[in-house]
Amino acid sequence: MAKILTTKEICEIVGGRLVGRDDLSIVSVNAIDAALDNELTFLSDIKYLESLSSSKAGAVLVARELEQIDKTQIVVENIDEALITILEYFSDKVVVTPGIHPSAIIGESSQIADSVSIGANVVIGENVVIGENTVIASGCSIGEASTIGSNCRLDSNVVIYDNCTIGNYCVLQANTTIGAVGFGYRAVNNVPKLIPHLGGVILEDFVEIGANTTIDRAKFGNTVIGMGTKIDNLVQIAHNCVIGKCCLIAAQCGIAGSTVIGDGVMMGGQAGVIDHVEIADGIILAARALVAGHASHGPVLWGYPAREIKKAQKIIAYTNRLPRLADTVKQLTEKVKKLEATKNDS
């Protein structure tokens, strides 16, 4: 059944100020160009004001009242926060039915809360602890002596190895692997030999991990992902890394072993960090940036290797001019040769 809110109800939910009609029925949220007259849109940047003027949207979330726009407006202090609140309302809620599927295999010594939902073909080792209201979807594998907190969601085929700790309110999307042995080899008689990894992985509360992401276990101690950090799909985090709180790490990033990343760090797509590097709080790595040394200032770094973005952009600009500069040098060299020849003849 479709969910419907009036503009008055939306305004009350987000604590905004209504400008215009309070009785418009809104059934969904959509982008400016695609929204219909029964949908809500939002103006995240003033550069989209012209598009908003021609939009069919019935109402719009704005940060300040726009006199030139003939639409119902809901004025809020923080558009992103208000948008998330409304999207959560319109999103389909997953109905959790506590229980264990008959095909699941669970170690006798494991402690599973009564409100946990465990899907088909799940395998849970011995001495595992799973907290209240957690959902373990089909095909997941949870190794011995691992702990999963309350209100977590593990999507299909998530693998958690032995001795890993997942906090409360964590989300692990499909095919994520937590606690695999890291890529730690040493040459013995000219043959690569794997170093045993005796440590584990700790995901603190409210961590969310995208699909097909891997977080390796530590050699000693723990690989740690801080509270509130969100990690995208296809990310590799190596052994003994420590990621701070409330970091955002986009798809295809790679973080090498024993790297320490501070709180609030953001990494754009395909950004990378070499091993044993420290990155200070609040630094932003733009897409494809490669950090090859300690990063203590910025706040935005970019390039290969990563530098402050203005410096990196200047280097790129100069690099793009090299063909023209090479031609200029060639021309000047020819002129010098002619001048020297003329001088010698005289």
Structural description of this entry:
The protein is of the alpha/beta class and 346 residues long. Among the domains are: 5-90, MurE/MurF, N-terminal domain (Udp-n-acetylmuramoylalanyl-d-glutamate--2,6- Diaminopimelate Ligase, Chain: A, domain 1, 3-Layer(aba) Sandwich); 158-305, UDP N-Acetylglucosamine Acyltransferase, domain 1 (3 Solenoid). Helices cover 18% and strands 29% of the residues. It has a 12-stranded mixed beta sheet, covered by helices on one side. The chain has a 10-stranded parallel beta sheet with strand order 9-12-15-18-21-26-29-32-35-38, with no helix packed on it. Strands 10-13-16-19-24-27-30-33-36 form a 9-stranded parallel beta sheet, with no helix packed on it. The N and C termini lie far apart (98 Å).
Write the layout of secondary structure elements.
Blueprint: E1 5-6, H1 7-14, E2 17-19, E3 25-26, E4 28-29, E5 39-42, H2 49-54, E6 59-62, E7 72-75, H3 79-90, E8 99-100, E9 105-106, E10 111-112, E11 117-118, E12 123-124, E13 129-130, E14 135-136, E15 141-142, E16 147-148, E17 153-154, E18 159-160, E19 164-166, E20 171-172, E21 177-180, E22 185-188, E23 191-194, E24 200-203, E25 208-209, E26 214-216, E27 222-225, E28 230-231, E29 236-237, E30 242-243, E31 248-249, E32 254-255, E33 260-261, E34 266-267, E35 272-273, E36 278-279, E37 284-285, E38 290-291, E39 300-302, E40 307-308, H4 309-320, H5 322-345
Parallel strand pairs: 4-5, 5-6, 6-7, 8-11, 9-12, 10-13, 11-14, 12-15, 13-16, 14-17, 15-18, 16-19, 17-20, 18-21, 19-24, 20-25, 21-26, 24-27, 25-28, 26-29, 27-30, 28-31, 29-32, 30-33, 31-34, 32-35, 33-36, 34-37, 35-38, 37-39
Antiparallel strand pairs: 1-3, 2-7, 22-23, 39-40
